[in-house]
Amino acid sequence: MRIGVIGCGKISSIYFKNLTQLTQTDVVRCADLDVERAKEAAARFGVPAAGTVDELLADPSVDLVVNLTIPAAHVEVGLAAVRAGKHVYGEKPLAITTASAGQLLTEATDAGVRVGSAPDTFLGAGLQTARALLDEGAIGTPLSGAVFMLSPGHEHWHPAPDFYYQPGGGPLFDMGPYYLTGLVSLLGPVAAVSAVATSGYATRRTPQGREIRVEVPTHVNAVLEFEGGATVTAVFSFDVPASTIPHGIELYGSDGTLVVDDPNNFGGPVLVGGRDVEWREESLRTPWSADSRGLGVAEMVEAIEAGRDHRASGALALHVLDIMESIHTAAERGARLPVASTCPRPAPFTGLA
Ligand SMILES: NC(=O)c1ccc[n+]([C@@H]2O[C@H](COP(=O)([O-])OP(=O)(O)OC[C@H]3O[C@@H](n4cnc5c(N)ncnc54)[C@H](O)[C@@H]3O)[C@@H](O)[C@H]2O)c1
């Protein structure tokens, strides 16, 4: 399928690298608000055409738009793609609000095109091996779990970090999608949340000394109640100078514990342990352990061509966004809140055709 990439910033390199190599995806054009940036990307990755967003959307040879713009532009660009009759797969989060994400999904359904969304790391070898082990009963019934994403914030490495501290950013909206999508793939949808959230600093500074105003919570403590009955403690922070707690997912079951490495990555290790047994590192069940960003696009293309549902779907991303929005609202109100949306647990993934 012919792909047009909109947004040629920091994350675009790995997409261009992978999408120009995968057989399912043929990158025919790219665009950015900064047209020079799009032209540079095209020259670097051998993309035949580059220019403005309007030119890309008017190009009848583009079937699917990969939207790699900043979160605040995801819906605007997604809607423009849908209105141009193109499928769209976007970076996370799907949108800044569930209301605007809902409009994108409704318009796409009406237009007969698909919406897909990152993260696709849940299709990687680590989380899919964990999924297979859970489904095989390796830890019995999942009862509870814990995830900790503790970091000092992205201004220390990102060239344009302001969006991480504006609505649509913060540790929950930026990093939460990896953990929450992984958890929904493992445990199914979330029914209710409780939370306490704080902002450790009103302003922050880039390494060059430029000030960034903080408009979102930067330390979020949440409890997730899954429809299936398990509860998971989740902490997302940009306010932690250093920590020894790893960025993984731990699930505690009736018969053992399952640990999978950082859901921001595609690989392992995946460990299973228990009361009276040594930790055992499991062999990964699929080859997708390197940085495979774009795998979700290729899987979506195969699904469209086969007429089946794709896994990194708009419905999954909307539910994850709704969980995040509900966490922020629960923290503001000091209340336990039901999560209004739900979604099917995505089917296991063993590889592309
Ligand atoms: N940087 C990372 O490591 C990383 C990792 C995973 C996911 N992401 C996600 O990828 C997305 C992009 O992040 P990034 O780090 O590449 O940001 P970035 O700021 O480096 O790049 C974004 C690009 O989009 C362009 N853009 C913004 N609004 C636009 C619009 N309306 N139309 C066309 N182009 C527009 C900008 O000019 C810029 O070139 C975000 O949603 C982010 O959450 C980033």
Tell me what you see in this structure.
The chain is an alpha/beta fold and 353 residues long. The chain folds into 2 domains: 2-117, 3-Layer(aba) Sandwich (Rossmann fold), CATH 3.40.50.720; 124-286 and 312-338, Dihydrodipicolinate Reductase, domain 2, CATH 3.30.360. The chain contains 9 helices and 17 strands. The protein has helices at residues 12-19, 35-45, 53-58, 74-83, 98-111, 125-135, 170-187, 295-306, 314-333, and strands at 2-6, 26-31, 49-51, 64-67, 87-90, 115-117, 142-150, 190-198, 203-205, 211-213, 219-226, 231-237, 249-253, 257-260, 270-274, 277-281, 337-338. The chain has a 9-stranded mixed β-sheet with strand order 16-15-14-13-7-12-11-8-17, covered by helices on one side. Strand 13 and strand 14 (257-260) form a beta hairpin. Helix 7 packs across helix 9. The longest helix has 20 residues, at 314-333. It is globular. Nicotinamide-adenine-dinucleotide is lined by residues 6-12, 32-34, 37, 53, 68-71, 73, 76-77, 91-92, 160, 174. Residues 6-12, 32-34, 37, 53, 68-71, 73, 76-77, 91-92, 160, 174 line the site of nicotinamide-adenine-dinucleotide (NAD).
What are the main properties of this structure?
Dihydrodipicolinate Reductase, domain 2; 6-stranded parallel β-sheet; GFO_IDH_MocA-like_dom; 353 residues; Rossmann fold; binds nicotinamide-adenine-dinucleotide; nucleotide binding; alpha/beta; oxidoreductase activity; 9-stranded mixed β-sheet; 31% helix; Gfo/Idh/MocA-like_OxRdtase_N
